[in-house]
Design goal:
The chain is α+β, with helices and mostly antiparallel strands. It is 31% helix and 18% strand. The protein contains five helices and four strands, in the order βαββαααβα. The protein has a four-stranded antiparallel sheet with strand order 2-3-1-4. The longest helix is centred in the N-terminal third of the chain and has 15 residues, at 23-37.
């Protein structure tokens, strides 16, 4: 059995999701989600069955945190979408208009093919990343580890191609 890359991205909004302040963000969600789903290497994304995105889902123990979680075939595929897709980059450039700056907001880890990570699992990985820094258990683009069933290669670094 192979592995897929799980990614978590969290953000604490500056206002409620349905507020006028976040209209620029919420109007782009369908576009960005559609582009992600059509990207090479995309496998799955967390979403509410009713609205098609994850804005109604809340982070465990903190309902002010919004979540984005998905799985991909590789670190390279996810990186290509995150930093290569024009619409996604436009949203990332504007994120300070909508979200507080968090010290750690993204976490990557490997899951068995077909596994759908839960919010509790993601919280555990993010907590480990905050406590221990990047490890094979939880890492970032800056320090990416190979899949458990992948070639035994060195830790790789993928540059952040979008300004903070």
């Amino acid at each position: 059995m192979g592995h897929h890359l799980a990614q978590l991205n969290i953000g604490r909004t500056l206002a409620p999701v349905d507020s006028d302040l976040l209209i620029g963000f919420t109007t782009m969600l369908d576009v960005v989600n559609d582009r992600a789903e059509r990207s090479d290497g995309f496998v799955w994304r967390l979403q509410d069955d009713g609205i098609g995105n994850a804005t109604s889902l809340r982070w465990p123990d903190d309902d002010t945190i919004n979540v984005n979680m998905s799985t991909w075939t590789s670190v390279e595929a996810l990186h290509a979408f995150v930093y290569g897709d024009r619409e996604h980059r436009a949203v990332m450039r504007r994120r300070r208009e909508w979200f507080e700056k968090l010290a750690i907001f993204q976490c990557l880890w490997w899951v068995p093919e077909g596994h759908r990570p839960t919010l509790l699992e993601a919280q555990e990985r993010l907590t480990a990343l905050e406590a221990d820094g990047p490890t094979p258990y939880a890492f970032t683009f800056t320090t990416a580890f190979p899949a458990p069933d992948g070639p035994a290669t060195d830790v790789r670094s993928f540059p952040d191609a979008c300004p903070a």
